[in-house]
Every structure is written in C-alpha cells, then in structure tokens.
Write a structure and sequence with these properties.
This protein is α+β, with helices and mostly antiparallel strands. The chain is built from 9 helices and 13 strands.
C-alpha cells in the first residue's frame, strides 16, 4: 500500500486520508442516494449533510465538494434539479466549504450526492477502531430516520414528524465539533446505513473492545412512536440484523421497538463518540448547548468478551 494513504481499504473507516506533508493530509469521501423526502431543496441539504459527515467523523475540515447528479431531464422539470443543487450548495456553505462543480448524467430516476475533500493534520485523525475499555459512548442525534423515511415513501408520514426528521437529517455533524476536538476522544464514527449496532460494531472491531449499549438511554426522534409499525420496517434494518447477529447480544428484556431502532438504517445520522469517562458529561453538556439537544451518553466500552462486539442491556 502507498505509505501516503494513511486511511484506506484496510479498515472500516468513514473516509480515505492521504498524507500531503508532515502537517497536512487530505480527507476524501463520497456518498449519494435516491430521494428520501419529497421537498427537493431539503433532499439536497440532507444529501450534502450526509456526505460532509464523513469528513467531520474523521476529525477533518471540509474544503470543497463536487455534485454527483443522476437526473431524468425528459420526465422531470429542471426546476426540481435547481432546488436540489441549491439545498446542497447552501448546506456546503454552512459547513464552511464550497461547491466547485460536479458531473451530471441522464438516468431513469433521480440520484444525488457529493464527493467531498477536506483537510486534517496527519497526527489528529479519528479512526473507527481505537476504542479503549473504559471509554464512554456519546450519540449526538436521535435515531429513527429509517422508519420515518420509509413512512414518507408509503405516504404514511405527514406534518411535524417529517419536519423534525428533516431538521435532524439536515443538521451538520460539524455542530459542536470544536468541543469534541478538545476532548480525550479515542474513536468516532457517524451512524448511517448500518445503524447504531453496525457502526458500533465497527468501533469495537479494531479497538479489541466490546461496547455495552444502554437501550433506555437511546435518543429517539420526537413523534417516532406513531411510525413504529410493521409496514415501516426497512430491508436495510433486516440486513443489519442478519449481518451483525453473530457478534451482538440483545438482552431479552429490551422492548421490541427499542431493539428495532438499534438496527434502523440512518440517513445523515449523528456521531458516535468514544471519550474518556471523566470528560463525557462535560462534552455532552457542551454539545447540547451547541444545538444538539439530544446528545446523550448511550453506553461504554469494556474489555473484549469473546466474539461479542456489542451488548445491548
């Protein structure tokens, strides 16, 4: 492997990191998907927040983004595409970065995302697999976006619950990041398609630890209760459950829907942060004061217990 590729295929990290000099490395990532909400501007903003998240999760600062567009211009109005691009451009600017261009192709359905490049010091990279036994785990956003977006697709979700889900999916994981950078953090990842359990397992893998998640502490999207029905279950949640089953132990006392949320695939979910125990409460407080009012301690790390990567109690 090229020695300048500090982070690449060999781990389960959120982005690639390439060393330019002793004090500069580039963080590179990309992500795109079909629309998950009806409002094109909101979709663009969510897609941008989701792609930018990988740079923040590595501890980096986003610099420039390129739009990746698949669009059926013969069947949908170009005004829709303009709104998607505007939502993304505004969100990238909010992150302190700039859109430098992109690429568009004709397709039968809309797909949209971004390739993002950021910068980081080579010695200050947050890796997925460095959790220390004794670390405390903080989750910065509530769970439930998979169930909500599934309900949106089936037209079962309307009103305030959608607005709240869009608000959180559009919230940058750069909010409050300056406080995370001053804490004794060992590992960080963003919670996206693999759900809290899947991304938690990634944290545990390289750190030779087992994560203990306290189900009662998990923050949930306000109003999620009305969408906790079988029709809104996603194929992604079922795949997450099957894939992680050999390495995860869920206590029999956990309520059905509390368990389901642990496997729910998230779009632009929050950061899962492993931090030294004596700094956890203070970091949570600072994150809440920054606008992440659901930032919560959701568990801790212990010495590896056999093949277990994650326990839910």
């Amino acid at each position: 492997m090229n020695p300048r590729l500090l982070v690449g295929f060999h781990g389960a990290d959120d982005a690639a990191v390439y060393k330019v000099s002793d004090d500069l490395a580039l963080v590179a990532t990309t992500d795109f998907f079909p629309p998950i909400v009806d409002d094109p501007y909101a979709f663009g903003a969510i897609a941008a927040a989701n792609a930018l998240s990988d740079v923040f999760a590595m501890g980096g600062v986003p610099l420039v983004a390129l739009h990746l567009v698949c669009f059926p211009s013969k069947s949908l109005p170009l005004e829709m595409l303009r709104e998607i691009l505007q939502g993304s451009t505004d969100k990238v600017a909010e992150a302190g970065a700039v859109v430098g261009g992109g690429h568009t192709i004709e397709d039968t359905e809309v797909k949209f995302g971004l390739a993002v490049t950021g910068q980081i010091h080579p010695d200050r990279i947050w890796r997925n697999g460095a959790v220390r036994p004794g670390d405390v785990l903080i989750l910065t956003k509530p769970l439930g976006t998979g169930l909500i977006t599934s309900a949106i697709k089936s037209r079962a979700a309307t009103g305030p619950a959608i607005d709240e889900a869009i608000r959180w999916m559009s919230t940058l994981n750069g909010v409050g990041i300056e406080h995370v950078k001053t804490a004794s953090v060992s590992a960080v990842t963003d919670v996206t398609g693999f759900g809290l359990v899947g991304h938690g397992r990634e944290l545990a893998e390289g750190g030779r630890a087992t994560l203990v998640i306290e189900a009662a502490s998990i923050p949930k999207l306000p109003g999620i209760e009305e969408f906790l029905v079988e029709e809104n279950l996603t194929g992604g949640a079922a795949r997450n459950r099957r894939y992680n089953a050999p390495f995860v132990d869920v206590a029999d006392t956990i309520e059905r829907w509390d368990e389901e949320l642990l496997f729910d695939p998230q779009t632009s979910g929050g950061l899962l942060i492993a931090v030294q125990e004596d700094e956890a409460d203070d970091l949570c407080r600072k994150l809440r004061e920054s606008g992440l009012e659901h930032a919560t301690v959701v568990g801790h790390a212990v010495d590896r217990e056999g093949d277990l990567r994650l326990k839910v109690i």
